[in-house]
Amino acid sequence: MKVGSITITVTVELDGDPLLMTGATMTVACETLDGSDSHDLITKAAATTMVTNSIRNGVPVTIQTTGSNGARPT
Fold first, then answer.
1. Which end of the chain lies in a sparser environment, N or C, as judged by fewer CB atoms within 10 Å?
2. φ, ψ (nearest 5 deg) of residue 45
3. 58-62 contacts at long range (C-beta below 8 A, 24 or more positions apart)
4. CA 44 to CA 34: how far, in whole Å?
């Protein structure tokens, strides 16, 4: 299977104070060059993609500052 074009749109849901992301929906449109069904490819990608799995499992976030005093963790 060869992919002709792929379009991915991500919609996030925000709620709370402070405002937090409470959900995300990824919409995928994938056209193959030979016209075959791309469902299996999208399903495999959804199970193995680094970004999706990282968001699902949560990741630590580090914020660093830079300036005349150098970078230091916040």
1. C
2. -65, -40
3. none
4. 19
pLDDT, one tens digit for every residue, the chain (74 residues): 899 999 988 889 999 999 998 988 889 999 999 999 999 999 998 888 888 888 888 888 888 887 766 555 55
- Rounded to whole angstroms, the Cα distance separating 14 from 24 reads 9
Q: What is the pTM of this model?
A: 0.64
DSSP 3-state percent helix, strand, coil across the chain (nearest 5): 25, 40, 35
Residue with structure tokens 């075959």? Answer: 36
What are the residue ranges of helices labelled H in the chain?
Answer: 39-48, 50-57
